[in-house]
Amino acid sequence: MVILKIKYFFKNFQITDLEFIKQLKTYFKSINEIEYLYFQLSPKESTLNIYIEREKINNILFEISKIKLEQQKIIINKKEFSIKEINIENLKRVDSLKMIIKSPMTFKIGSDFLDTFSSFVFFRWLIKSYNEEFNLEKEKRFILTNEILEKISCSTNLYWEKKLINNYEINFYIGEIEWNFNLLSDDELSKCLLLLKYFNRKNVGYLSKKGYGKIEIIN
């Protein structure tokens, strides 16, 4: 996987990352044809990073370069977006990552809550939420097989706390997870990193929309 780094000019950045990407994708037809993409937006640095498999970069690179050279107008949220610079970087292999759970997290399966942290359930939740958030068609959905997920291991340093939710006592946990990806191929690893990067500083698991399960990835 490689990183397509785009330096841009865009005034008055008052828009969510997700809405920004949705509007930007309407100008890039080739982007909509690719299954797995991760967009990292950094308004302070005026940088957009697109993580993409190397063999699929040519069409996007051609399209973005054409827009830049022809100075085509891109309008996002009624403001003009202009491309200043385009670069390509290799995504370095990372076999281990630390993840901090910053607000209480747990997962619910059916009517039951997990008593221990499960990397399998954690990544299954990320995959399901990613596909739902981008409303991906069936043939373009993000997929990691059970065989891939079983290769992922982790060590945990967690402490538990009980919370009363709807008159039920539920065990939540906070702490650190050390991920180990050394059994994954480069392609498998890229997809796992894509998911973790996308959900970095977001909320994961049960009651995530109410502020539970905030995670932070430490390289």
Notes on the structure:
Helix content is 25%, strand content 36%. It is α+β, with helices and mostly antiparallel strands. It folds into two domains: 2-90, Alpha-Beta Plaits (2-Layer Sandwich), CATH 3.30.70; 96-218, Alpha-Beta Plaits. A five-stranded antiparallel beta sheet has the order 2-3-1-5-4, sandwiched between helices. Strands 9-10-6-11 form a four-stranded antiparallel beta sheet, with helices on one face. Strand 2 and strand 3 (47-52) form a beta hairpin. The two termini are 17 Å apart. The mean pLDDT is 86.
Q: Could you provide a short overview of the structure?
A:
The chain is an alpha+beta fold and 219 residues long. Helix content is 25%, strand content 36%. The protein is globular.
Keywords summarizing the entry:
219 residues, alpha+beta, Alpha-Beta Plaits, 2 domains, 5-stranded antiparallel β-sheet, 4-stranded antiparallel β-sheet, 5 helices
**What Rg, in angstroms, do the CA atoms define?**
19 Å
Which architecture of the largest domain does the CATH hierarchy give at level 2? Answer: 2-Layer Sandwich
What best-fitting shape do the alpha-carbon axes yield? globular
Overall pLDDT: 86
What class do helices, strands and sheet pairing give? Answer: alpha+beta
Number of helical segments with 4 or more residues: 5
How far apart are the termini? 17 Å
Strand order of the biggest β-sheet: 2-3-1-5-4
Helix content: 25-40%
How many DSSP-defined strands? Answer: 11
Write the layout of secondary structure elements.
Blueprint: E1 2-10, H1 17-25, E2 38-42, E3 47-52, H2 57-69, E4 74-76, E5 79-90, E6 96-105, E7 108-109, E8 112-113, H3 119-133, H4 146-149, E9 153-165, E10 168-180, H5 186-199, E11 215-218
Antiparallel strand pairs: 1-3, 1-5, 2-3, 4-5, 6-10, 6-11, 7-8, 9-10
Helix pairs in contact: 3-5
